[in-house]
Amino acid sequence: MPVEDHLTYDVGRMRRERLARLRHHMAAQDVVATVLLHDPHVAYASGHVGPAVDSTHAVYQRPVAVIGQEGPVHLFTDHPSSDLAAEIHPSVFPELDESVAGLVEAIGMVAGTSGTSRLAVDEVTGAMLRSGLLDGFDLVDAGRVLGPARLVKTEDELACIDQAQRINEVAMEEVRTACLPGVRRSELAGLFSSRVRQLGVDDVLIDPIFQPMPRNLSDGPRTSTGHVAFPTGVGDPLFNEEDLVWVDTGIGVEGYASDYGRTWVVGRDPSSAEQGLFRRWSAVMEASLATMGPGVTLAEVGRAAIGADRGSVPWLPHFYLAHGLGVESAEMPMVGTDLGEEFDEQFVLEPGMVLVLEPVVWEDGIGGYRAEEVVAITDTGWRPLGGWPSHLPFKP
Amino acid sequence: MTTELVVARRRRVLDAMSEREVDALVLGRQDNVGYSTGMARLWTSGTRPFGAGCVLMAKTQRTHLLSSWDAGVPTSVVFDDLYPITWNPKIMASSMAAIGGLSTARRIGVDACSPGFIRAAARFAPDAQIVPCDDLMARVRTVKLVEEIELVRSACQVAWSGVEAVLDRPDDPTPIAPALVAMAALGATIPSSKPVVRSEGDTTVVDLGVVVDLYEGGVGGRFVDGRREHAPTLVDACRDGATHEDLARSSTGPWLVRGLGMGYETPIIDAQRGQDLTLVTGMVLSVTDGDHRDVVAVTSGEPDVLSTPPYPASRLVDSGA
Questions:
Q1: Which residues lie closer than 8 Å to A268 by C-beta, 6 or more apart?
Q2: Are A265 and A366 in contact (CB under 8 A)?
Q3: A44-81 CB burial, b ≥16 within 10 A, e <16
Q4: Predicted confidence band at B320 (pLDDT cuts at 50, 70, 90)?
Q5: What is the pTM for the complete model shown?
Q6: Which of B22, B110, B167, B205 has its CB 3.0 to 4.6 Å from that of B17, i.e. a possible disulfide?
Q7: Distance (Å, whole) CA A353 – CA A63
Q8: Which residue does chain A place closest to B130, by CA atoms?
Q9: Which strands make up the sheet holding A244-249, listed edge to edge?
Q10: CB contact, 8 Å: A56 with chain B?
Q11: Closest C-alpha to A287, from A312, A264, A270, A265
Q12: What is the CB neighbour count within 10 angstroms for residue B249?
């Protein structure tokens, strides 16, 4: 199955527009320098996207970005992405005490070496704490400037998400035909990762999830909410014909995440009861989408979903009905989280925001249906990102 | 991984806390959480924002773990000692405040932190000093337990299965794809490092790393006709007491000797770093010289190579160098 190119993107323009947004929020909050150690933050601010490796490798070898209100972005890495506008410096290892002098120099490039100026930082390592190199600065979480900048996507960002989502969908629709009795989760994960590579994407951002779900909440595992546990990432289950499998995968294009979620059956057609779950899920999805658009609050979207499911809350209580998607696979805005109703009432959707809708319907004894679709808010409503493949073998 | 190993690792962490007079240890790094609790969280790539993944308490000797369910939680952690995942900093602060003894702690150790965590800690533990303890964890983890060494050895064999798959399919347009399938067939679906596969004339260069049961394995080399060139002398130089100078003198190309266990660890020794470090018995190291990589355990004698090829030594070839 070929991957269709629907949207094209201009990486240079995307990097310039993101940096302008970040600096706008820095100026508005009197932040003189932003020091970034977290991969998605570095990617957003500098354009550098590192490989999708284990967190321990990412931590020790991580790139660091230092951004002032003007001038070049200073990026510290030995293997920068191509064609960056940033000024490239040798890597600093912020985990190591012996590297602190390099960090002091890096921060000094834009913030001076002392004073009481406001500095945004996303992580403080042990070596940074021991050295006291941030003492004297008015420290704020970098999320305060990155959060609002990342909330509304540029057209190029939307195109990256769309592209990642389409490739993810093509790979998963092929893997679905291999989800058969006697097959293990790891085999499907290997198939997915290799297929994604063949489609030209190197970065699998999450260990692929193919989780057979219980039919009754009392079958466990025990949870703090009383609802089901997902995604647990535990064990390497062997599928059998009775299973109802919740799947969830994500890959990266230019640092932008996709998010594919579906419910699969194993080498058979769904029962009429399972098919009924899918119809219920579809009604929740349709009602949520019908509400979606600029000027709408998160609370209105949540209420539409609850109304369509006759008063039950059709999402996992430890998660959300919907979450944002960008350089991280779950970011703001989020609908229906434990941030509470007041948060959802005050948060208004704007054109350029992205939401992954992931309703869950559950009926004890039958089980649950969960799937995800990605939308971008437009001037008049919303449009899909990705190709929205069918939910076969479930039928509308 | 056995329960005994989980218990032994946690004992080491609690003992180190006692030595440093740390009342509570808040760990954010997944590998530190895994080391101290045995919890294998769903793997995601790259760095994660700092958050309290687990809290170890010196006085009660209890482990409090971030999880909304008991799946994957070691039996030594009771359900009431779990605190749920949350998007709400106020709920997280309440979870912290509810941990017995944390609100009156004098010294709270962290393996990293953020401005938000420092501010929150000032409220849920007003008398506490935040103490960097990344070095405490690194030191505890440096010398491996016997079972850890065997887990690394097993993970290296999984990496070898990936290498063999690459060599078996020399004309595959996506040479890494067969390796991913082969390693997944052994249940391994988590990459540790960026995979390297490239051709240089008759030579295929491969470097693969994988995480199996929380422990990393890896191997790399230059292969001609399916056979790997001999290990460089740097591998054999990884002996008890070896200094930066010893290692530098043994290297032939760009080189890196770094800790390997639950992923990338200290010590980190290369041309620029680790000038004052000395190897000691019990360390497990990933040893890279040029395109060659082996994983070794430092012993009192010759290094124990954990990444030995799954074929007879007669298949080894001399390097052209």
A1: A241
A2: no
A3: bbbbbbbbbbbbbbbbbbbbbbbbbeeebbbbbbeebb
A4: very low
A5: 0.96
A6: B22
A7: 28
A8: A129
A9: A209-212, A244-249, A260-265
A10: yes
A11: A312
A12: 12
Query: Model confidence at B172, in pLDDT bands (50, 70, 90)?
Result: very high
DSSP A244-283: EEEEEE-EEETTEE--EEEEEESSSPPPHHHHHHHHHHHH
Q: In a 10 Å sphere around its CB, with 0-12 CB exposed, 13-18 middle and 19+ buried, how is residue B220 labelled?
A: buried
* Residue owning tokens 């010893």: B246
Q: What share of chain A is helix, strand, coil (3-state, %, to 5)?
A: 35, 20, 45
Residues A352-375 as b/e (b if ≥16 CB within 10 A, e otherwise) read: bbbbbbbbbbbbeebbbbbbbbbb
Taken as a whole, chain A contains a residue count of 396
Q: How far apart are the first and last CA of chain B?
A: 41
CB atoms < 10 A from the CB of B192, how many?
Answer: 26
Task: Please answer whether residues A206 and B193 qualify as being in contact, where contact means their C-beta atoms are separated by less than 8 angstroms.
Answer: no
Cβ pairs bridging A and B (under 8 Å)? 214
Domains of chain B: 3-141 (3.40.350.10), 146-315 (3.90.230.10)
A359 or A220, which is more confident: A359
Any idea what the Cα angle at residue B78 is, between residues B72 and B84, rounded to 5°? 65
Q: Give the integer Cα–Cα distance in Å for B232 and B225.
A: 19
Cα–Cα distances in angstroms (integers) from residue B112 to residues A26, A76, A126, B50, B117, in the given order: 24, 20, 5, 7, 10
What backbone phi and psi angles, to 5 degrees, belong to A285? -60, -45
Q: Which domains, ranges and CATH numbers included, belong to chain A?
A: 11-149 (3.40.350.10), 155-385 (3.90.230.10)
* Residue type for position A364: D
Quote the DSSP letter at residue A365. Answer: T
The size of chain B, in residues, is 321
Alpha carbon distance, N-terminus to C-terminus of chain A: 23
Give the residue from B29, B43, B47 with the most A CB atoms within 10 Å of its CB, the best one to mutate.
Answer: B47
Contact residues for B166 (Cβ-Cβ < 8 A; gap 6+): B172, B175, B176, B178, B179, B197, B204, B206, B208
**From CA B11, how far away is CA B142, in angstroms rounded?**
15
Q: What is the pLDDT of residues A237-253, one digit of tens each?
A: 999 999 999 999 999 99
Is the minimum CB–CB distance between A124 and chain B shorter than 8 Å?
A: yes
Residues in A touching B264 (Cβ below 8 Å): 54, 56-57, 59-61
With H, G, I as helix, E, B as strand and everything else as coil, classify residue A226. Answer: coil
Span B43-94, pLDDT tens digits: 999 999 999 999 999 999 999 999 999 999 998 899 999 999 999 999 999 9
In this predicted complex, what is the ipTM? 0.96
Task: Read off the amino acid at residue A134.
Answer: L
In sequence order, the β-bridge partners of residue A247 are A210, A262
